[in-house]
Write a structure and sequence with these properties.
Two copies of one chain form a homodimer. The first copy, chain A, is α/β, with parallel strands linked by helices. Chain A has helices spanning 24-37, 51-60, 87-94, 108-115, 119-134, 147-153, 155-167, 184-197, 213-222, 244-254, 269-279, 301-309, 336-345, 352-368, 376-386, 435-447, 499-519, and strands at 2-3, 5-8, 41-45, 69-75, 99-105, 139-145, 172-177, 202-206, 227-230, 258-259, 297-298, 327-328, 395-405, 412-421, 424-431, 458-466, 477-484, 489-496. The longest helix of chain A has 21 residues, at 499-519. Chains A and B meet through α1, α4, α9, α10 and β11 of A and α4, α9, α10, β11 and α12 of B. Chains A, B: It catalyses: pyruvate + acetyl-CoA + H2O = (3R)-citramalate + CoA + H(+).
């Protein structure tokens, strides 16, 4: 088996995509998921470009990664300056990652016209930058920007640039189809030529402008490239980067000779894809190959009939191999096996009758627009409710939110809430910066006297998305709230036509989860509730 | 030049896609557009399958088509029956199209297990069906279902099936990758073998389950296929069919030896893509190659800088060749050059002083959390305000929103709004499914008596994002609203600590942009506001 290293650049090149924006917390969560999956390299960002990336590199060192190596990305040094005096170089080394990736110019037109330096100085910039990083960082990867375009126009110079990188100690030379317009046969020819001339392992980095990013990556691998760079869901500028979901799906399932990811992790591909969409607050692309919600959906009567008789009739792979599933007619995102797996993962005790009730309930909620990928705390609470294990921490009697605004002033926002807590009634009111903040304030006032540990908890993120965009503001909205305390971060979800009600539902689950979690004898297993907590 | 025939099956295979549904009128309009573009074949439907398709074939005969030939689609005759007695065959001939396309089984497993007939009877079904249609219809095309899967398992039988079609008089043999899982190298090998053995022109029909539909189509063409089947925008079951926009874009612009479409029509590709989305009432896919709204959008500062020096720096083709356009995204990464480009793109008149004020203002707003990349209408209004060109359509005096909820009931939501419109005061109130819906309702009540064309406009999407996730619900939120009327789709943005205020700001811009746009003398150029509009 030949291992193909997967280099994920969702957090760097992917974030160049229109509308893509990750918070620091998002980036750390995604890194952990990619590591779990068995991605070999996670490119975290561009240390010089913004303070968020700098904080990321500081924080990522504390993540207990099992497999992935984190890479910091930067450009070659500026012209006419020593590498050690260059801000960018210094920032790269200061990121203290095990891997640094440096991008440099291959295409003579770019060197002369865009960069405005001589062809010789560009070679020195490449060599110096790599040599400098090599003296501080164990593994330096060289990304040859516009390799295929440059190679087509001036193959000799293109080869000189990567020879400069190889000579200076680059561990990998990655050939980039930066403009995304190359054809698979051109990629194959170029990789052939380079592998004959350069004695360093090759990688491939493609973009999808010709809708050929995946084909181009596979074409390079067939000619000997051993690393593929891309992004989850193909996020990225313009038409995006090669979608790693498709790259990995094809390499793992269509080519018996290649090995990717950690063993047994391919079944989590769909989950990671959806997690990234949720985290980026983007809608799934239903028709996305391998992981899309429609990828194994059958509408045509003949196809449904065929699939029933023999699944391979109209399916190129078994959907379960990538954690996806077949759908016939109505949407059923979660199958029984997913749910069973999920229950096991959380150590939630269950019998077959509970499993069936959870499945029914999840399908029903998903039809209403719920999604539990980024809201597993709500899932855990749901299971507890269905199992009759839910403690009555509090019960809503009524809430009211009002906002009034005038031009040039902050609006006035007030929320009141009336709850039963045990046999007492709490009726509280709070102002806030906005309706959720005001509701949060009123809820704390009502509950903290009974449950002081709620003071440890805070809300860290709040996301709203319209589910059926067709109907505009009258459509349903899904609110996802991320909360944390000293130990954990958890997501909860609410769905309603009304954003305030959806927020309330997610907020209620956020508080309930904190209460449930603190009362569990051990983390992960929801068993019985300590009787003295609600006193 | 070798002509590659383009066979569009948007109206048949495309309509198998999840959520795709065309009315009879839609189908006729799309046929006319495809004809104008120079598509060679338009497959209109499946005469036996539903009455709409039957009506389509009746009506399409009256369209004055310039170039395209309309095809009716059907399966081979049923088992053990003469072709002339088969309902499907009769319906195909009755469609009176110049072309009939018949699909038949190639894969022995399908013949035996799914169809349940003998291998010999399947060959007779193919031959009889084609011979019967040939006796009534000038051109009969044979679609070999599951060709590549069948060929891999039992190449001899697969070849026998298409030989039966060729012997019976098929004008084309189209090799179908029905399950969409084949690899380009397998397609190339199979096409090589078939073209050596079968003396009939070949076509290729691919699906995108491995994200290789376009690559597979191109691979077949390079080995001698002369017809490509696909759909506009890649509509179709599961992951869709080969996107003809990408197939045509690549064939026309990357391969000098091939000719497609009518001369000079490639510039209408983007328009046809969007027309099909609009007609199908589907959202555009921004990152779609060649024709997507982000396909030539630049965000990274380095890329914007490069594109301005030389467009080929970061663009694989000139966007104008396919009727698309370059966009510079106004984002946190943007500098003065981006803003200047944006002003030019919108034909917004400006001098250096206005440019400087816009830049200051954008930077200030971006620091507050604004992002204009999905909200260019708000950017246009901002420039107009800074230039003193903003018309006073209406002025907010006050709004109030209240939501009250009880368990198990829909919350009650009410918004009131007080506006000055010219010298009148409008004070209106509305209920709604949620606060934005209620505000939208109250705003319409207040403004529609003055500006009736607001009735053309509706909200299509609403997104909320917390900007600085660290501070939880007390952080700022960014609301982006997407609106549309018959002609355009536009995005607006609002930022505040309060989601209701942020929604109000985005909603206000959405309405103002509609009013401003309708009063402009020409589309795209915001110049002066016609004085009589507000009367």
């Amino acid at each position: 088996m030949t291992r193909i290293a997967i280099y994920d650049t969702t957090l760097r090149d992917g974030s160049q995509g229109e509308g893509v924006n990750f918070s620091l917390q998002d980036k750390l969560l995604i890194t952990a998921r990619l590591d779990e999956l068995g991605v070999d390299y996670v490119e975290g960002g561009y240390p010089l470009s913004n303070p968020k990336d700098t904080s990321f590199f500081r924080a990522v060192g504390d993540l207990p990664l099992k497999h992935a190596r984190v890479a910091a990305f930067g450009m070659t040094r500026r012209r006419d300056i020593a590498a050690e005096d260059d801000q960018g170089m210094k920032a790269l080394v200061a990121a203290r990652t095990p891997v640094v990736t440096i991008v440099g110019k291959t295409w003579d037109m770019h060197v002369l016209e865009v960069l405005g330096v001589s062809l010789a100085e560009n070679l020195r910039m490449i060599g110096d930058s790599i040599a400098f990083c090599r003296s501080h960082v164990p593994e330096v990867i060289y990304d040859a920007e516009h390799f295929f375009d440059g190679f087509r126009r001036n193959p000799d110079y293109a080869l000189e640039t990567i020879r400069a990188a190889a000579d200076a100690g680059a561990a990998w030379i990655v050939l980039c189809d930066t403009n995304g317009g190359s054809l698979p046969e051109d990629v194959a020819d170029a990789v052939d030529r380079v592998s004959r001339e350069i004695p360093v392992p090759l990688g491939i980095h493609t973009h999808n402008d010709g809708e050929l990013a995946v084909a181009n990556a596979l074409s390079a691998v067939r000619r000997g490239a051993r690393q593929v760079q891309g992004t989850i869901n193909g996020l990225g500028e313009r038409c995006g980067n090669a979608d790693l979901c498709s790259v990995v799906g094809n390499l793992a399932l269509k080519y018996p000779g290649y090995e990717v990811l950690r063993p047994g992790q391919l079944v989590h591909l769909t989950e990671v894809s959806r997690f990234v969409y949720e985290t980026a607050n983007m809608n799934f692309r239903p028709g996305q190959p391998f992981v899309g919600t429609s990828a194994f959906a059958h509408k045509g009567g003949m196809h449904v009939h065929g699939v029933r008789k023999n699944a391979s009739s109209y399916e190129h792979i078994e959907p379960e191999t990538v954690g996806n599933e077949r759908r016939v007619l109505v949407s059923e995102l979660s199958g029984k096996s997913n749910i069973a797996e999920k229950l096991a993962e959380y150590g939630l005790e269950h019998d077959t009758s509970l499993l069936a009730r959870v499945l029914d309930s999840v399908q029903d909620l998903e039809n209403q627009g719920y999604q539990f990928e980024a809201a597993e705390a709500s899932f855990v609470l749901l299971v507890d409710r269905l199992a009759g294990r839910r403690a009555d921490w509090f019960e809503l009697l009524r809430y009211n939110v009002s906002v009034s605004g005038k031009p040039g002033r902050d609006p006035l926002t007030e929320a009141s809430i009336k709850l039963a807590v045990g046999d007492q009634v709490a009726h509280t009111v709070s102002e806030g910066d906005g309706p959720v903040n005001a509701l949060d304030g009123a809820l704390r006032k009502a509950l903290e006297p009974h449950y002081p540990r709620l003071g440890e908890m805070s809300l860290v993120d709040y996301k709203v998305r319209v589910i059926n965009a067709r109907a505009g503001t009258a459509a349903r909205v899904r609110v996802v709230i991320e909360s944390r305390d000293g130990d954990d971060v958890w997501g909860t979800v609410g769905v309603s036509e009304n954003v305030i009600k959806a927020s309330w539902l997610a907020l209620r689950d956020a508080f309930e989860y904190k209460l449930a979690k603190d009362s569990r004898p051990c983390r992960g297993g929801v068993t019985e509730v300590a009787a003295d907590v609600a006193s």
